[in-house]
Amino acid sequence: MNEELDRRLGGIPFPALILIEGDHGTGKSVMAAQFIYGLLSSGKSGYVITTEQSTYGYLRKMREVKVDLIPFFLRGKLGVAPLNTSRFSWNSSLAKRLLYVILDFIKRVRDFLLIDSLTVISTFSRREDLMEFLRGLRVAVTEGKGIIITVHPNAFPEDFGTRVKSEVDVYFRTSSASIGNRRLKVIEKIKTSEGTFGSDSVSFDVDPSLGIKVVPLTLSRA
């Protein structure tokens, strides 16, 4: 795990249901990969379901920003399951089927599952199907598994997003911000499983040579 990031965020609980929400390019996928890197480094194993990359593409993309998951993949500690959503003709029936496929897949997971991202599936899902999916995720957490989901803003229909955020154990929001003369990314810890709400935020950059680099506000304004 990135020690500075871990210190600033206070770590993440396990097992837990974690939601990371943010627009494209705000670092949510890299942040989620950093979280599972920490889980893998602590001896846990699990899977990534990627809806935007191939297996090779996902692993290569993360290695390019110094979150190297390939050694864990080669040792069988990490599996990557690509779900090419661009090939589907979307409707609510297909979305429902995929939600249940994912729930069934979770049964094979030993310790954790990252879904990166759930946006397309949730956009076409009906409220009742998402409710059932959320219940299934909560069951997995009670069984000792960690679930991390990334989504874009407004990925859930109507007011269901509020329900999801109330049900998850941890809710992070990523965004971009101009601080001084620098364009940075920001992750805000909106909710934790301990019930702490607030704007505990960390500014960071994704440096290809250094990976995730926490940028103190005093330096970002320089």
Automatic annotation (TrEMBL):
The keyword Repeat does not apply. It holds the Pfam family ATPase. The keyword Ion transport does not apply. Residues 14-176 form the AAA+ ATPase domain. InterPro entries: AAA+_ATPase (IPR003593), KaiC-like_dom (IPR014774), P-loop_NTPase (IPR027417). It comes from the Archaea. One of its GO terms (molecular function) is ATP binding. Keywords: ATP-binding, Cell projection, Cilium, Flagellum, Nucleotide-binding. This is Putative ATPase involved in flagella biogenesis. It comes from Metallosphaera yellowstonensis MK1.
